[in-house]
Amino acid sequence: MESPLSDENNEPRGMFDVSIKPDTYRVAKAQAILKIDPNTNILINEGRSPKGDVVEAAKISATLAAKRTSDLIPYCHPIPIDQVRVKVSIKPECIEVVVDVKSVWKTGVEIEALTGACIGVLTIYDMLKPVDNSLSITSVKLLQKSGGMSDLEDKEKINIKAIVIVISDSVAGGRRTDKSGNVIVDNLRKRGIDVVGYKKLSDDINLIEDSLKKYCDEVQVDLILTTGGTGLGPRDVTPEATRKVIEREVTGISDASRAYGQRRTPFAMFSRGLAGVRKKTLIINLPGSTRAVSEYLDFLFPSIKHAFKMMEGQGH
């Protein structure tokens, strides 16, 4: 019987693996409210709080808590915090603590904002409890969050026809079973992309060039993903063939992909894959490694879908 503390593979549950996620801009805002006696409001405004300035103490504690959230919440990732802003509002019958947190990272910052707001009001609670027996934390809630790949997901369905081309002498010759191409096909289909073709080619520059032109000009697919032939081997000619076909190179895709890969293996620097457009077809060279293509696709999607709207003239 599967343990409730284990997943379907009977692996212990715990922190989510965010290693494949790219860094994105993240923002969150949280609020916590402490109900106070009206007389306590007068005491604070007159500067007679027994433990000092509650506003400054709450700002410091909330900031510290947001930065140290992973030490307090066991499954929360340690993340770099780029900004914490704390606003403390003293009202007649309550004190409101609002915490804004910003980060450029792989995972959201809502727990950091919530933790900051909670610790901020708890600090005030501690400072006021000698003079107010009616203190009550009445609300802790997330006001706003944004960022992450889900925000980049286009809610409007885009119909994309794709071709996957495996470029390898050994695979084309039947001496080795293809893995990376099948990974791409499965990945694309799970994303709702119509894979209309899957082809195996040897490392022949003319053969690759002719095939790319055919799928762009005759079949008129939207997306061509190649795998293999992007390294420094004597038969690695996929980038050369692609360069002869594309009309506009999209250096940002290949540069960003290599930078993403470099954070995972130093060998990513040897990938010479290109990305570019011929007419209305986007061509992207992916590495031949099964693991690499899986990670690169997670990196490219869903934002890569925006390229097709741009090519239709819909701008940014």
Task: Describe the protein.
The chain has 316 residues and is an alpha/beta fold. The chain has helices at 38-45, 54-67, 69-72, 110-128, 149-152, 169-172, 180-190, 205-218, 238-245, 251-262, 290-300, 306-311; strands at 24-35, 83-90, 94-105, 136-146, 161-167, 194-201, 223-227, 248-249, 275-278, 281-286. Strands 6-5-7-10-9-8 form a six-stranded mixed sheet, sandwiched between helices. The protein is elongated. The model has no long low-confidence stretch (mean pLDDT 90).
Quick one: biggest sheet?
A: 6 strands, mixed
How many domains? The number is 2
Strand order of the largest sheet: 6-5-7-10-9-8
Total count of helical runs of at least 4 residues: 12
Q: Approximately how much helix is present in the residues?
A: 25-40%
Just give the CATH class of the largest domain. Answer: Alpha Beta
Q: In CATH, what is the homologous superfamily of the largest domain?
A: MoaB/Mog-like domain
> What is the tally of beta strands?
10
Structure classification? alpha/beta
Uncertain regions spanning at least 5 consecutive residues = none
**Taking all residues together, what is the mean pLDDT?**
90
**CATH architectural name of the largest domain:** 3-Layer(aba) Sandwich
Summarize the structure.
This protein is of the alpha/beta class.
